[in-house]
Automatic annotation (TrEMBL), chain A:
Entry annotated with the keyword Membrane: yes
Keyword 4Fe-4S: no
InterPro entries, sorted: DUF3526
PANTHER family on file: ABC TRANSPORTER PERMEASE, ABC TRANSPORTER PERMEASE PROTEIN NOSY-RELATED
Superkingdom assignment: Bacteria
Keywords, alphabetical: Membrane, Transmembrane, Transmembrane helix
Name this protein carries in UniProt: DUF3526 domain-containing protein
Organism: Spirosoma rhododendri
Segments crossing the lipid bilayer: 12-32, 128-148, 175-197, 203-226, 238-261, 422-443
Pfam families: DUF3526
UniProtKB/TrEMBL annotation, chain B:
Keyword terms, alphabetized: Membrane, Transmembrane, Transmembrane helix
Organism expressing this protein natively: Spirosoma rhododendri
Top-level division of the source organism's lineage: Bacteria
Membrane-spanning intervals of the chain: 24-46, 131-153, 182-205, 217-239, 245-264, 459-477
Protein name: DUF3526 domain-containing protein
């Protein structure tokens, strides 16, 4: 009987078309991920090439004035993309993965946007996570919405109830066939993903696969519960599509607007304006005062002779430094706000499985906001190290030629993300148990009814 | 007593059943709630963002004006900010707003990026979309229309009343027109309040001071949405008429909805972005720099282009050295450098825009099979939340930046002596009265005519759909069968 049911299921035209469409969309998404990774690699190669030629050119022109040379030199820090990010691009297309900074005031350069086409951002990527989160549930719904109810409408359920002593096991088997086939498609896609994207087979991939499987099971559990309610097929379809709409379109949207309204970020504009003013007004204020403020921040440079000339580089970079110091308060507030947004959305997302899955996949792929925040912090450290090094050499009048410039290649940021893969699975697991449990209880009452 | 037309009776019947059914009231109330929520949200967000930008724009202007006497080139680096104003109709249609930068710093010799898009500070949530009045009308109302309309003909077929109706002498054409009228009537009862809500919010936000251009945009927008909703009703009635049972009709319509609103738009854009590649930021600016260096490097004292410029100046004023020139030499060099680099940058930026346009072209073409894409693009364009409007802002900001830099270069050429100030002298400076003469950046909105010519494809696509609907109705009526 189970073999017959399987054949019946797989032979129906709609199912075949659905499975084929999903496979095609999945494969397309893998190539889009591949291209994303290639473009990231290209961008890194570009910035590396640029830094080499540009350093050589500027060093040749400004070989006598280290201060002026450093005005021009841009040092780059790269936030490398994990191969897994090809499956879940997350915020990687919005936020730049490369930060190029001079040792001048950081707050006036760190927010520089990447080149992007907003139309692409608005419509979103067709990456694997989209296929998983949006399309897989639709296939689950399409395969399961009329289970039992269809047989009831055709009058064949009566026969099954009479012939089969254990009706529940029939229902389980019907579900097992459908869920098995859909999980099979998922498995095929994941294997293809490993091949197309050269994914390392490691814990992160296992976590990614685990999340994906549980997400599909979550939707199967929802279907199980809805079909247990003994409604008409069309009502089931209505309920499930409305549920899909609510969980994937409406709730995340409402949550986003809540978070944006709750944690607004006027500090962004504030920081930029303050940084500009903080630096520029020092041109017109007392030089000694500027130097004193600078020494208060960096006591180790107190031995620099006071500026006697109308212009000298220690004073110039002290002014730049004070631009950052003035903007520090609002810049910190901005970072805190964004970190709060990240934290709150993760907490609330636990109650909305598609959202939770998306954030969790981004996290595993290192493409979420938290990765961006850590990269931002790392950029700050990177800039500070450069600054300290060059303050030392510049303020002690080291000649340009004495510096080993080859040392300043493009640097790479290593993200040590805290891992909570297993904890991330729990909310989905809880929802699955809930829906299967409630579904089981109702089915026990309704299964035997014709 | 005059006999009522059968179409009218059928239409009234559709309306009555729609409003009598309990299954329908729930989504209707839900959608109505979402509409109000979206309206309030759009209203608040517009008010807050506008207040914020105006406040900081004023602060930036105040900072600019409070500069004391100084060297004009210092002012060229002090620079100015351009804040992107939120278009008034963004209260209705958010469009790309969240993905567009809001603030650009304008200074000499450097084209900065427009920074601080909302998306940059967003968690993955934003990518699930945003709720606005336009989103409810584009996405949710069509689904409700399909829920309301899947049974208009097919359910009568299921219950056998269809045969009864036709045997009473009602023609298939009358049947379809009647059902269509009824469905449109139901939808308009939801749509008209939305129009009123938008108009009131829009009037209040602008304190009643609205331009003719903005009014035209609003009217066109409301008309376009009416057309779109009629198309959705038409699709529902046609599918219902061609389906063997109500259930098939429902499943088909839900499939259509998912395809048109979720899958196709994303797929079209993704394919466009896949095919047409944009350069990386590093490559983009490296190319610009290469071109600028080819023309001449104003920061390199030994550069041949500027050596020639120097010679021609010395000849023109008949002097032996730059110190003797009656104009400030480095000012002349900077003005020349600005001219060259701005020109090259604009060329490269235009090329980039063309790649974006090519990426988006596919979506514009797919609009001919997907009315959702057509209304979406048209709606963003009319609301001023699309890419064309953003590109226009970027152009205006760059134009202002160039004017500012050249204004200050001109002051330097005229007033700053060629002899450098000695180490202990007071640095050269000009009067702060000159700062006032550089007006603040003010964005000039795109005229509605320009917007319409830019989005003609979407406009034509909607018209094609409406015409196609009439043709399809005739065909379905002609080939109509009861079973």
């Amino acid at each position: 009987m189970i073999r017959l049911a399987f054949k019946n299921f797989i032979r129906s035209g709609g199912v075949r078309v659905g499975l084929a469409l999903l496979l095609v969309a999945g494969v397309v998404s893998l190539f889009i991920g591949r291209q994303f990774l290639d473009r990231q690699a290209q961008a890194i190669a570009d910035v590396r090439a640029y830094q080499q030629t540009d350093f050589a050119r500027n060093i040749a022109i400004h070989k006598d004035e280290l201060g002026l040379l450093l005005y021009y030199l841009k040092f780059s820090l790269v936030n490398p993309s994990l191969p897994l990010s090809g499956l879940s691009l997350g915020q990687r297309d919005v936020n730049p993965s490369i930060q190029s900074v001079t040792i001048r005031a950081l707050e006036s350069q760190r927010y520089d946007a990447d080149l992007t086409n907003p139309a692409n951002l608005l419509l979103g990527n067709l990456d694997f996570s989209f296929v998983l989160i949006y399309l897989f549930p639709l296939l689950v719904i399409a395969c399961c919405y009329n289970l039992v109810s269809d047989e009831r409408e055709n009058g064949t359920w009566k026969l099954i109830v009479v012939q089969q002593p254990d009706v529940m096991s029939v229902i389980y088997r019907l579900y097992a066939i459908r869920v098995g086939v859909i999980l099979g498609v998922l498995a095929v896609l994941l294997v293809l993903a490993v091949l197309v994207l050269n994914l390392p087979v490691d814990g992160a991939l296992a976590g990614f696969a685990g999340m994906s499987v549980l997400y599909v099971l979550f939707w199967a559990a929802v279907c199980f519960w809805v079909t247990s309610l003994r409604k008409q097929s069309s009502v089931n379809a209505l309920l499930l599509v409305t549920g899909w709409l609510g969980l994937i379109v409406l709730l995340p949207t409402l949550l986003n607007t809540y978070i944006v309204a709750r944690y607004p970020t006027p500090e962004a504009l504030e920081t930029t304006l303050t940084a500009r003013k903080g630096y520029h007004e020092k041109w017109d204020t007392d030089k000694q005062q500027t130097m004193q403020a600078f020494f208060a921040h960096y006591p180790q440079f107190r031995s620099i002779p006071p500026p006697k000339l109308a212009f000298n580089w220690p004073w110039y970079y002290a002014m730049q430094q004070l631009g950052d110091d003035d903007a520090a308060k609002s810049a910190n507030a901005l970072r805190q706000k964004v970190a709060q947004r990240e934290m709150v959305s993760r907490q609330l997302a636990r109650f909305i499985p598609p959202l939770h899955t998306q954030l969790q996949l981004n996290e595993l792929a290192g493409s979420g906001l938290s990765n961006q925040l850590r990269f931002q912090t790392a950029t700050g450290r990177f800039h500070e190290e450069l600054r300290l090094h060059f303050y030392q050499t510049m303020f002690t009048d080291t000649p340009v030629s004495a510096e080993n410039w080859n040392r300043f290649d493009v640097k790479t940021f290593r993200d040590n993300a805290p891992s909570d893969t297993l904890v991330g699975l729990l909310p989905l697991l809880a929802f699955i148990l809930l829906f299967v449990g409630v579904g089981w209880l109702t089915f026990r009452k309704t299964a035997a009814m014709a | 007593m005059m006999l009522e037309l059968p179409e009218r009776i059928l239409a009234r019947h559709v309306r009555r059943t729609a409003f009598a059914s309990r299954v329908v009231w729930l989504p209707m109330v839900l959608i109505a709630g979402l509409l109000v929520y979206a309206a309030v949200l759009g209203w608040l967000s517009f008010r807050e963002q506008t207040a914020l930008r105006v406040r900081y724009q004023q602060e930036a202007r105040h900072d600019w004006l409070s500069n004391p006497d100084k060297h004009p080139h210092r002012m060229a680096h002090f620079g100015n900010f351009a804040f992107r104003p939120k278009p008034p109709l963004s209260l209705f249609e958010f469009g790309m707003e969240s993905y567009l930068g809001n603030l650009v710093f304008l200074e000499a010799h450097k084209q900065n990026s427009v920074n601080f898009s909302e998306a940059g500070f967003s968690t993955g949530l934003l990518r699930f979309g945003e709720i606005s009045l336009a989103m409810v009308l584009q996405l949710l109302l069509p689904l409700l229309i399909f829920f309301l309309g899947y049974g208009v003909v097919a359910a009568e077929r299921d219950s056998g009343t269809l045969r009864l109706l036709l045997s009473q002498g009602i023609s298939p054409r009358q049947l379809l027109v009647g059902k269509m009228r009824g469905l449109v009537g139901v939808v308009m009862r939801l749509y008209v309040p939305v129009v009123l809500l938008t108009v009131v919010g829009w009037l209040v936000l602008q304190n009643g001071r609205v331009s003719a251009d903005e009014t035209a945009r609003l009217l066109l927008l409301m008309l376009a949405y009416a057309g779109y909703l009629v198309i959705c009703c038409g699709v529902a009635v046609l599918v219902s008429a061609r389906s063997s049972s109500a259930r098939t009709a429902l499943v088909t319509l839900m499939g259509i909805w998912l395809m048109l609103t979720i899958v196709l738009p994303r797929a079209a854009q993704a394919v466009g972005a896949y095919v047409y590649e944009i350069p990386s930021k590093a490559q983009f600016f490296a190319r610009i720099q290469d071109d600028v260096l080819k023309e001449g490097d104003s920061h390199n004292p030994a550069d041949p282009h500027y050596a020639k410029l120097k010679d021609s100046l010395l000849t023109a004023y008949n002097v032996d050295s730059v110190q003797q020139l009656p104009v400030n030499y480095s000012g002349v060099v900077m003005a020349e450098g600005e001219k060259i680099s701005a020109h090259i940058y604009t060329n490269h930026f235009d090329q980039l825009q063309q790649v974006y346009a090519r990426q988006n072209r596919l979506s514009e073409l797919v609009a001919f099979v997907d009315p959702f894409l057509a209304i979406r693009q048209l709606s963003m364009a009319l609301a001023g939340t699309d890419y064309a409007t953003y590109a226009d802002f970027q152009q205006q900001a760059e134009h202002y930046r160039y004017e500012m830099a050249q204004y200050l270069n001109a002051l330097q050429i005229k007033y700053i002596p060629n002899k450098k100030a000695g180490p202990t002298d007071k640095p050269h400076a000009i009067s702060r009265a000159n700062w006032e003469a550089m007006p603040d950046f003010t964005y000039q909105p795109v005229p509605v005519g320009v917007t319409l010519t830019q989005s003609w494809r979407s406009l034509v696509a909607l018209v094609v759909w409406l015409v196609g609907l009439v043709v399809a109705f005739r065909w379905v009526a002609r080939t109509f069968t009861v079973a």
